[in-house]
Amino acid sequence: MSATVNAHYQQNLDTDRIIAKLQSAYPEGPDRFQLAPVDQLHIGGIKASLKLVKRIAELDVTSILDIGSGLGGLMRLIEQDLKLSITGLDITHGLNQINQQLSSLAPSNSSPQVITGDAHNLPFKSNQFDLIVFQHSLLNMPDAVQVLRECKRVLTEHGQLLMHEVLQGENHSEMRYPVPWARNADDSHLRTESELLAMLSESDFEVEVFNDWSEEALAWRQRQAEKEKQSAGNTTPPPVSPALILGPEFGQMGPNVIRNLSNRAARVVEVIARDA
Length: 276
Ligand SMILES: C[S@@+](CC[C@H](N)C(=O)[O-])C[C@H]1O[C@@H](n2cnc3c(N)ncnc32)[C@H](O)[C@@H]1O
Hints:
Helix content is 44%, strand content 20%. It is an alpha/beta fold. It has a single domain (3-275), classed as Rossmann fold, CATH 3.40.50. The protein has a 7-stranded mixed β-sheet with strand order 3-2-1-4-5-7-6, with helices on both faces. Helix 7 (144-154) links the parallel strand 4 and strand 5 (155-168). Helix 9 packs antiparallel against helix 11 (250-262). The chain is globular and about 55 Å long. The structure holds S-adenosylmethionine (SAM). S-adenosylmethionine is lined by residues 2, 5, 9, 40-42, 67-70, 73, 89-92, 95, 118-120, 135-137, 140-141, 180-181.
């Protein structure tokens, strides 16, 4: 298990506080939009996840693995909207525990399966899933080739990968930290577009879709920053925010995401690839 990934996501976690805040603000149970500030831990929020759900609805898949499922925002949307079987795998046990509690708080009371484990060594038998999703999680994994090898093993024949990931931009040397997925460069594993495409091809995956979502990711983060500024001067700020998971450094992470996307130090992309 990676000690630094665990430390990054767990060092500020206070499960009881998060659950208590949600219960007191939303006694009927939080809906997907009320949960989004904590369970959609990627650039683009619930809007990006709903785009992925739409994409998945167009693919012919029944069993899905979400690698690096975090607090499970995407998993719950897939289960609720598409009624598909989805398993979450995440290396950070504390996040998995909250994920399960959030599922039981939500009015739909769905409870997708969540397992603690490392993507470099998947705890599953071969040929189990039609689709594997990575949403801002490959960016934490040092050995993407090994992860892709494992994906290939657990995917069914011609199974697919769907990635919503952060890549290096042309000006990666200008990258600023901390960012929501890493406090420093050592824990951030962003690849260039050509590195990712080469790794997929070497692992025998054929890329079917490659879209650059950077512009809308930047616009989304700028809107969030505006909302955060307004709520700071508000007497009743929103009950939950990403700072409850990522800690006080979230105050620097948000602006750094804006700088990194504006400077093209980083990019946000959607990729679909098929086991060739
Ligand atoms: C930026 S968060 C994204 C969480 C979620 N996919 C989302 O978009 O809300 C990255 C997630 O990847 C998980 N992760 C990082 N390295 C991993 C590994 N080697 N195996 C499984 N999960 C991993 C982290 O614990 C964290 O929950």
